[in-house]
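Job type: complex structure
Entries:
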Amino acid sequence: MSTILKAPLTVEFPFTRSLGPVQSAFLTGLRERVVLGVRAGDGRVLVPPVEYDPVTAEEIRDLVEVAPTGTVTTWAWNHEPRRGQPLGAPFAWVLVRLDGADTALLHALDAPGPDAVRTGMRVRVRWAEERSGAITDIACFEPYDGDPVEPAGHSGEFADPVTGIVAPARLDYTYSPGRAQTGYINALAERRNVGERCPSCRKVYVPPRGACPTCGVATAEQVEVGPGGTVTTFCIVNIKAKNLDIEVPYVYAHIALDGADLALHGRIAGIPYDQVRIGLRVEPVWTEGARYPDHYRPTGEPDAEYDTFKELL
Amino acid sequence: MNREIAVVAFAQTDHRRTTDEFSEVEMLMPVLHQVLERTGLKTSDIGFTCSGSSDYLAGRAFSFTLALDGVGAWPPISESHVEMDGAWALYEAWVKLQTGDADTALVYAYGKSSPGSVRDVLTRQLDPYYVAPLWPDSVALAALQAQALIDAGATDEPALAAIGARSRTEAATNSHAQLRGSVPQGEYLVRPLRTGDCPPIGDGAAAVVLAAGERARDLCERPAWIRGIDHRIEAHGIGVRDLTDSPSTRLAAERAGAFERPVDTVELHAPFSSQEVILREVLELDDSVRVNPSGGAPAAHPVMAAGLIRIGEAAARIHRGESDRALAHATSGPCLQQNLVAVLEGDPR
Ligand SMILES: [Zn+2]
């Protein structure tokens, strides 16, 4: 068996979210170096603030300013910071109950080592130089042995409130498609299209995924299909996709390769888009050095009889 | 309606650090075949199918629809999915059977953690406004909880190490487990948690079959009757909670009837050693109860399947006559945020 394919895969997107009145006030406050909490129905002040009472589920928005100083309620020493975390050098994760608050905020504490950290220690906010209205406007906490800082009693009203955040997400993977799809991709690189036959219903699936979706059994028998095929349905694409070097309009089609029992997807070219039709006979076009067909073009054969592909619609 | 519903079969993969040679469906399919084989049922006999998994683990969109290829979903089946541990898929199936719409259900769950970095992946389940932008990984959050327990005098580092060691010793007889026997406690990952306090990272899948009433007795010699099942959730902000306690587990256990009579076997889903300390306390477990004879999550932890495996392991002991009344627990989210408790019983012998 050939070696299983592997490739790096990065999933990355800007997570754009709107804020409600409470979150907006809190994050705008951080931009302005003001920490706000919200008073819950039982009188507790929650920091960071939430929009709904955790006990009664009532909407709450009675904002209360709390101090930028507080007490560590628990901690954990992180000797190997990971990508995206607040500090690049070893630091402590801390839950901090700010003075005037009844709940704790998660953040990082800049400290020289684990021996310098303990539950109950006093800390204060270190503000980020550049602030935009995000939790990262708090750069981190730092040890503090002074008096509590008296909050000014901010109302939570700001002239230019932050109404949304962008929280970038990025995850890195090493993707492997598994045995069946490795076989398919390797065959494509040799300009062959292969499927797998179900041992039970005898249908041939292209691309193969290692299982027959009808019978729910493993497939293993490789079968070469095509190269020719029949268009079973299509659509005309009029919107240009970002970073896609294909002129619109173009035709995107389902193509039943000869010998396959499932149609695959492909682009049709070499024929004006308004002349593509169901039943059109096509073949793959491979460009130099490519690992898969660039598109499918008409073979010039007469159109396939409907009865030959009606089961594949 | 209050129907008697039982777990009648259970199967799981061998859990391993990597399974590059398999796609998710290729990993899952043998387990589906095994669990059906144990009951003699075919896909077409199953009344309802429910699965648990997460696209974020392997970085594949809509992966559960591809996994359905392993079930045989044509002609159309009655099917549902939860983006959660399979224990919650089992709960949904249990509700479906309670309605009388189905007499049998297939529940499965799978997770491939090997393609990505599960510590980072799990940050994406956190509050996106206040927490996720800081990227606190799953070990860091568990370490905060462990330190809170140490500060409260509920445990210390040697006691935590003993929990991991006991689990892996128990797992010596579990051929499916990823870590078995003696495993070094290792270095700190995030202090106070060492490698030995944390679950192994791995790939795996599990499946169970549920059946109602007489159908269960037809399919299994000694069904594991679900006498009670309940799940509860706590505030998502971890700074709002008392991290040394788990009121959601206690409430779920009460509602599931766990405290009505003693249990003889417990399968706890405590990925981190410190979490077992909390769960033992709230579930009022003393040393007379066998906890995690399978080795538990410290021995094998396929994310999204590990909770369903707890129910499956507890049920399998009842099937084999090694237990008469067992408690199974599953958790999800950071620091025991969500908890499910099921109480299972075999017919009197
Ligand atoms: Zn088939």
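Summary: The pocket of zinc ion is lined by residues A 198, 200-201, 203, 212, 214-215 (CB under 6 Å). The helical segments of chain A are 21-31, 178-189, 306-309.
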